[in-house]
C-alpha cells in the first residue's frame, strides 16, 4: 500500500499546473467572437394542444384528456388504456354532458358499443357504465338513430361463443331496459328470439315450442343462469304491459312513421299497420248542444274496433287466415306457446320430490323458491297481456284458449304441492343463526309472495271459481282466509299482494254465483277490518274494496248478503269525525252516497252535526289541489235527504264556526240550499 501512495503522489506532481491569476493574460484574437451562422426553426404547437389549453377545464378529464383523446384510447389494444378512456368519458359526462351529446354523440356511441364484446371483463363492465351515463345524458330521442348499431352489438353478445361475454350481455340489456325502454319495446321482436336462445332451443323448426338447455359453463348451475335470464324477461314484459295500459310514455313519437316491413322468417316481426285506439286524440271540450252518449256496459266503447278484428274467425288450432297472421294476437299467442312450456319445465327441474314424506313436497330450497317466484310472475304477466288484448279487440277467444291450454297443467304441476314454504336452513351460512341470516337476506320463510301468486293465477285460470266446489278452490280459499286472520306481514309488498288476491277473488270477475267458502272469506275480512289493528293504508284499501263491491256490482252485493255489510256501513261516518282521512276513501264514500245506500245515509244523517263541527280539523291526505277533499266532503253532505237536518245546519252557527275559507263556506251554504230546493 505504501508503494501505491508514492506512485499516486508522483503522478500528481507531474501534471501541468495552470495559473488562474496571471496579470495581463488575454485570449488569442478571434476566439472570443460569437458565431451567428446557425439556422433557426419555428416551434409549431399542434391544434389539439392549442384547443386543450384554450378550452374550459370542464371538458377535460382528471388527466387533461379531451373527448377525442378518450375516444382514441378506446381503439388501443391495451385494456388499461381502454378503461382509462372510458373513465375519462364518464368524468366529462359528469361535468359537461353537452360536450359529448352535442358534438360527439355518433362517434361516442359507435366507439363505446364496439368494446361491449371485448375479451376483458373489466373493459366490458366499464363500457356498460359509460353507456348508461351517455344514454341518460342524451335521451332516447337522440339515441334512436343509432339504436340499430347498439342492437347489433347486443345480439352479437347474446350469441357470442365466449360464455363470459354471453353472461355479461344481460348487463348490457339491463342498461337498455333502464335508460331506453321505449326503444327496447319498439325492437322487442328483434331481441326476443336471441334472448330465449340463451336458455332454450326449438324442439322443431316448424313449431314455436321450446325445450330447456344446459348452462353456459360449470361455474354456475342451470337454475342460477336461468334465474338471471328470467329476471330480464320480467323487465321486458313489464315495459310491454305498461305501454298497453298507458302507464308510461312508451311508443313511437308522434311524427314518426310506423314500420310496416319485417322479416317473414321471424314470427315476432311487426307487420300490422293498425293504429291502436290509445293513439287517437280525444276531444275533451264539452259542447252542450251535442248529444251525450253514456257507455253503460264497458268503459272503452269510444275506441274504434277494426273490421279485421270484428269479423275474424275464432283463434283455434286450425289454419289461420292472413289477417290473423298479421294481427298482434298471433305474436302474443306465439309468445305464450314459447314461454309457458318453458316455465313448467323449469319448475319440474327444481320442485321438491314427494319421497321424503307427506310434507316433503311443500318444502322448497332457496333456489326453488326464487325460481317459482319468477315463473309465477312471468305467467301472470302473460295472462295480463292476453286480457289486455281481449279488451282491445273485444274478443275473449284468446283468454278461453289460454285457460283451456294451461289450467290443467298448472293444477297438476304447481298447485299440487300448495302451499309452499322454505326449509329453515335455506340460504343460511355456516356458523350463523338461521333466523338472523334469513332476516339479513330478506328470505320469506313462509313463501307468502309465491303462495299468493299461486292463488291469484289459479283464480285467473278458472272463470267460475267463486261457485267452484272443487278441492283445489277449497285449498286456495282456506289458505287466504288463514292469512287474513293472521295479518302480520313485515313487508308492505306482501300486504299489497294479498289485497290484490282478495280484490280479484271477491270482486273482479264476471262470475256472480257465490259459494259458501267465498262468503266466509268476505265475513272474515270484515271481522279483521273491524277488530284488528291494521296499518292505515291497508285499512283504506280494504274499505275501498268493500265500497266497490257495493257500488260497482249490485247483483254481487246481494249474492253476498246485504246483512253482512250492515254493521260496517253504519261505522263509515265515524271516519269523518277523525283528524285525518284519505282522499280515495272520501271518493268511495261519495260513491256510496250517490248510490243512495240507505244504511250509510241514515248513519250519516245521525252524525251530520259532529261531522260539520269537525270539518275545520279534518285533514285530507293525497289530494292534488287545495280544498279538493273539502269539496268532496261538501258534495257528500248534499245527499242527505232529511229536510229538518239541512235546515238546522243552515240556521245554526256551525257553518260560521268552521275554520275554512270564506269561499268554501259560501259553497257549503249554496250546496245545502240547492239540496233543499230539490227535496
Automatic annotation (TrEMBL):
Residues 246-257 have a biased composition (Basic and acidic residues). Residues 142-237 form the Pre-rRNA-processing protein Ipi1 N-terminal domain. One of its GO terms (cellular component) is MLL1 complex. It comes from the Eukaryota. Keywords: Nucleus. Residues 246-268 are annotated as: Disordered. The keyword rRNA processing does not apply. This is Pre-rRNA-processing protein Ipi1 N-terminal domain-containing protein.
Amino acid at each position: 500500500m505504501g508503494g501505491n501512495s508514492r506512485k499516486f503522489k508522483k503522478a500528481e506532481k507531474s501534471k501541468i499546473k495552470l495559473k488562474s491569476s496571471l496579470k495581463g493574460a488575454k485570449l488569442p484574437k478571434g476566439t472570443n467572437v460569437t458565431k451567428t451562422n446557425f439556422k433557426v426553426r419555428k416551434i409549431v404547437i399542434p391544434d389539439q394542444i392549442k384547443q386543450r389549453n384554450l378550452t374550459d377545464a370542464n371538458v377535460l378529464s382528471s388527466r387533461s384528456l379531451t373527448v377525442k383523446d378518450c375516444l382514441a384510447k378506446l381503439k388501443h389494444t391495451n385494456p388499461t388504456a381502454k378503461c382509462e378512456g372510458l373513465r375519462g368519458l364518464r368524468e366529462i359526462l359528469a361535468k359537461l354532458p353537452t360536450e359529448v351529446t352535442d358534438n360527439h354523440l355518433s362517434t361516442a356511441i359507435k366507439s363505446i358499443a364496439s368494446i361491449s364484446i371485448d375479451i376483458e371483463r373489466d373493459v366490458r363492465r366499464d363500457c356498460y357504465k359509460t353507456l348508461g351515463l351517455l344514454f341518460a345524458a342524451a335521451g332516447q330521442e337522440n339515441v334512436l338513430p343509432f339504436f340499430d348499431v347498439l342492437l347489433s352489438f347486443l345480439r352479437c353478445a347474446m350469441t357470442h361463443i365466449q360464455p363470459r361475454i354471453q353472461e355479461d350481455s344481460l348487463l348490457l340489456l339491463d342498461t337498455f331496459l333502464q335508460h331506453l325502454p321505449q326503444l327496447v319495446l319498439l325492437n322487442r321482436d328483434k331481441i326476443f328470439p336471441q334472448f330465449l336462445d340463451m336458455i332454450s332451443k326449438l324442439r322443431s323448426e316448424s313449431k314455436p315450442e321450446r325445450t330447456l338447455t344446459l348452462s353456459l359453463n360449470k361455474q354456475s348451475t342451470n337454475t342460477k343462469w336461468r334465474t338471471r335470464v328470467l329476471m330480464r324477461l320480467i323487465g321486458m314484459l313489464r315495459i310491454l304491459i305498461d305501454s298497453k295500459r298507458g302507464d308510461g310514455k312508451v311508443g313511437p313519437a308522434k311524427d314518426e312513421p310506423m314500420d310496416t316491413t319485417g322479416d317473414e322468417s321471424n314470427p315476432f316481426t311487426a307487420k300490422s299497420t293498425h293504429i291502436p285506439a290509445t293513439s287517437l286524440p280525444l276531444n275533451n271540450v264539452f259542447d252542450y248542444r251535442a248529444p251525450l252518449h253514456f257507455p253503460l256496459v264497458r268503459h272503452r266503447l269510444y275506441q274504434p274496433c277494426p273490421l279485421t278484428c270484428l269479423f275474424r274467425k275464432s283463434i283455434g288450432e286450425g289454419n289461420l287466415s292472413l289477417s290473423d297472421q298479421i294481427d298482434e294476437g298471433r305474436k302474443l299467442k306465439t309468445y305464450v306457446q314459447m314461454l309457458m312450456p318453458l316455465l313448467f319445465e323449469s319448475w319440474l327441474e327444481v320442485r321438491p320430490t314427494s319421497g321424503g314424506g307427506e310434507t316433503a313436497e311443500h318444502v322448497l330450497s332457496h333456489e326453488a323458491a326464487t325460481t317459482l317466484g319468477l315463473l309465477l310472475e312471468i305467467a301472470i304477466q302473460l295472462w295480463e297481456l292476453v286480457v289486455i288484448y281481449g279488451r282491445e279487440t273485444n274478443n275473449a277467444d284468446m283468454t278461453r284458449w289460454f285457460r283451456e291450454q294451461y289450467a290443467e297443467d298448472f293444477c297438476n304441476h304447481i298447485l299440487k304441492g300448495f302451499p309452499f314454504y322454505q326449509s329453515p336452513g335455506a340460504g343460511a351460512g355456516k356458523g350463523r343463526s338461521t333466523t338472523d341470516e334469513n332476516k339479513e337476506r330478506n328470505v320469506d320463510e313462509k313463501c307468502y309472495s309465491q303462495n299468493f301468486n299461486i292463488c291469484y293465477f289459479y283464480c285467473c285460470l278458472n272463470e267460475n271459481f267463486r261457485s267452484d266446489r272443487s278441492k283445489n278452490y277449497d285449498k286456495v280459499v282456506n289458505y287466504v282466509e288463514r292469512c287474513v286472520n293472521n295479518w302480520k306481514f313485515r313487508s308492505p309488498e306482501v300486504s299489497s299482494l294479498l289485497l290484490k288476491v282478495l280484490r280479484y277473488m271477491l270482486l273482479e270477475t264476471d262470475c256472480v254465483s257465490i259459494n259458501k267458502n267465498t262468503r266466509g272469506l268476505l265475513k272474515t275480512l270484515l271481522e279483521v277490518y273491524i277488530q284488528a289493528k291494521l296499518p292505515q293504508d291497508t285499512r283504506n284499501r280494504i274499505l275501498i274494496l268493500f265500497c266497490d263491491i257495493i257500488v260497482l256490482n249490485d247483483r254481487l252485493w246481494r249474492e253476498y248478503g246485504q246483512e253482512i255489510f250492515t254493521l260496517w256501513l253504519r261505522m263509515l261516518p265515524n271516519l269523518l269525525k277523525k283528524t285525518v282521512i284519505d282522499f280515495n276513501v272520501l271518493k268511495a264514500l261519495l260513491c256510496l252516497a250517490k248510490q243512495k245506500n240507505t244504511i250509510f245515509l241514515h248513519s250519516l244523517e245521525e252524525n251530520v252535526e259532529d261531522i260539520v263541527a269537525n270539518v275545520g280539523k279534518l285533514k285530507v291526505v293525497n289530494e292534488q289541489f287545495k280544498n279538493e277533499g273539502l269539496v268532496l266532503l261538501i258534495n257528500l253532505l248534499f245527499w242527505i235527504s232529511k229536510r229538518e237536518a239541512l235546515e238546522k245546519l243552515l240556521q245554526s252557527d256551525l257553518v260560521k264556526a268552521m275554520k275554512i275559507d270564506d269561499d268554501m263556506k259560501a259553497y257549503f251554504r249554496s250546496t245545502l240550499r240547492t239540496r233543499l230546493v230539490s227535496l
